[in-house]
Amino acid sequence: MQENNPGEVSFSDIRIVNADNFDWLPSGSIDFVLTDPPFNIARDTNFHTYEKNTIHSYRFDGDKGWDTFSRQAFVELLHEWSAGFSRALRSGGSFAVFCADDYVSDLKQALISAGLKPRRTITWRKPNAVPVNSQHMMMSSCEYIVVGVKGSRATFNSRYGSGDPVSLHETAFVADKVGSIVDMELKSVLRGLQGSIAREDLGQTVETYLLGRAKDIARRITNLDKSSDGGGVLALPNFVNFNSAAGNRLHPTEKPVPLLSYLISLMSRPGDTILDPFSGSGSTGQAAFELGRKAVLVERDEEYFEKSAKRIKKLVGEADQALI
Prior knowledge:
Oligomer: single chain
Largest sheet: 10 strands, mixed
């Protein structure tokens, strides 16, 4: 460990800084910006009045106010942050920025104004989303990630050759593709059984059906790459399924490491430097370290800065111990 000052520590190639900006970073020094900034969706609600609700408020920023702004002030912040991303990124560097659905268009416009090129919006579907107020409206089970590049020639690791090890993003693609195949087949069989099967028999029906279709599903998995363009390019969709972070979160809006690893694997190379200027609990740093990338994590809240430093220190220590 290298300790530079009370507000900065480094473990291996992961640098963690307690600051409210990243203006001090050299221009063009970053290969990939991967970050989950405030969404401006924290608010008080009347959810406590609904029967069986376990989540009573969206005031997850507590009394710190880091997710509470007027709409105009927040849009101005999006422009400020985007300008910072553009300055820090090298030409050809990529970005992936999490965003609430209310502000996707505002974020895209801010990125364009800063000279960046948004290319796609990834929909992250959360199978384990909390069913807040679900008796009165559709459950909110998606978040959005705006991805793009500064300039052109962005890193996009979708090419692979026969016999190559399956990468993280290819694993996610295969899982989601197989999930879609199973999903459509189950919808078909359950529609055919509508009105003739009791709820308590659903589990057995699904098990029997899937066992009967296992060989066909396996064949379709084997032939997944046949649907590419013939040059070894997977047709990666702009959606992905990952469970949200569960259990003992270090931060109320903590993103799951497998999702961050997916994005890092797809949009950067080993040895690249990743910037997360809203690093919270340090999840991006963990994913970067495990994938052989460098990272600069910036977190203004001293509590989360200390938690992320402990997290990365433990991770690096365990990796060093494994080499002994």
